[in-house]
Write a structure and sequence with these properties.
Number of strands: 8
Order of helices and strands: HHEHHHEHHEHEHEHEHEHHEHHHH
Bound molecules: zinc ion
Oligomer: single chain
Strand order of the largest sheet: 1-2-3-4-5-6-7-8
CATH architecture: Alpha-Beta Barrel
Number of domains: 1
Shape: globular
């Protein structure tokens, strides 16, 4: 989708030649060259469409794609189909390798996959073995493509408290071996974050980041709960914060990053249209934000396309896009070495 921002229109009307599109292109820095972290990317949903079709055909599995985005039930059917395909370990490793290659192609210096080792216990024999297999594959492919990889072990909000605690202890055991954060996903309505207080306490005690989804389908109160009860360092989505000046001021003051996903928010009816998305308002209120793709196999755009959308449709300036990229690095679980290097490269990108 391409639209013209008011700034583009002004620039185009004052530059008769060359063509406006050329003028815009010349004036704007290459977003692929902007080093960025991809912090809100569910591993399974990073699969390439062609690869999924090929794997499904060879496994004899039908994976239904959602025909609408009205509720989570169609997602669930898609995810269940994908998990049948990915139960073959070679398919999971291929997904990981191709997803990391795609990150490299989009200028992603660091990816923090939402990972669910609980999905692969039957494949690898135990929760621990599943996580070790995923970490090994991520390390090998990250090395190959030049992308640093961290894992966000993700609790499903419909899981029991006991299962969540088991995952948190597993994540904590791998805190210095590739696991960087503990996430919390699925529908927040009716599944309050507070149930998982203990799991997040275990994770934080081990030095992991607390990175729950909140403020997507529910209001600012759920974001406040994520901050107060789960000690959130980042909030995945968090866009309903825009409805509370007090909360935006708090997020800005505490440096909590929102891992925002534009297309996902529109397709899931969190926001009516892309043009209505509050990313720019949040950034201008001083809230740290990263830009992400969430579930590319379902929603379409990858992270680079989401940055392009933020520029062309929401009118984020290059300085604001660089600030989002910097937040996506500084607020992540990336190594200090990468954080230092990427910060310098982002500054150089903006200065160019
Ligand atoms: Zn998500």
């Amino acid at each position: 989708m391409t639209t013209t921002s008011p700034a583009d229109a002004t620039r185009a009307s004052s530059v008769p030649s060359p063509a406006p599109a050329d003028a815009v292109a010349r004036d704007r820095r290459d977003l692929r060259a902007l080093p960025k972290g991809h912090l809100h990317l569910h591993m399974e949903a990073a699969i390439r469409p062609d690869s999924l079709a090929e794997m499904a055909a060879s496994s004899g599995v039908v994976v239904p794609m959602p025909t609408s985005f009205g509720d989570f039930s169609e997602f669930s059917a898609t995810y269940q189909g994908m998990l049948v395909v990915l139960a073959e370990s070679d398919n999971l490793f291929r997904l990981i390798d191709e997803a990391i290659e795609d990150c490299a192609l989009e200028g992603v210096a660091y990816v923090e996959f939402g990972a669910s080792p609980q999905f692969y216990v039957a494949t690898f024999g135990s929760l621990d073995a599943s996580l070790r297999a995923m970490l090994a594959a991520c390390a090998e492919s990250g090395e190959r493509w030049g992308v640093e990889v961290g894992l966000m072990i993700t609790v499903d909000r419909t899981e029991s408290v006991e299962a969540a605690n088991e995952l948190a202890h597993l994540a904590a055991a791998y805190a210095d071996r590739g696991v960087v954060s503990l996430g919390l996903a699925n529908d927040e309505r009716g599944n309050p974050a507070a149930r998982y207080e203990e799991a997040f306490r275990v994770a934080k005690h081990a030095g992991l980041l607390s990175t729950p989804h909140a403020g997507e389908l529910a209001g600012p109160d759920q974001i406040e709960e994520a901050l107060d009860v789960l000690g959130a360092d980042r909030v995945l989505h968090g866009v309903t914060a825009v409805h509370s000046e007090t909360l935006m001021a708090r997020l800005a003051a505490e440096g909590v990053c929102l891992d925002v996903c534009l297309t996902s928010n529109v397709l899931l009816s969190v926001i009516p249209t892309i043009e209505d998305h509050p990313l720019k308002r949040l950034v201008e209120a001083g809230v740290r934000c990263s830009i992400n793709a969430d579930d590319p196999i379902l929603f379409g755009p990858g992270v680079l396309a989401e940055y392009e959308l933020a520029r062309t449709t929401l009118g984020l300036t290059d300085a604001q896009l660089a600030a989002c990229a910097l937040s996506s690095i500084e607020c992540s679980g990336a190594s200090d070495e990468l954080k230092g290097r990427a910060a310098g490269e982002i500054a150089a990108w903006l200065a160019a």
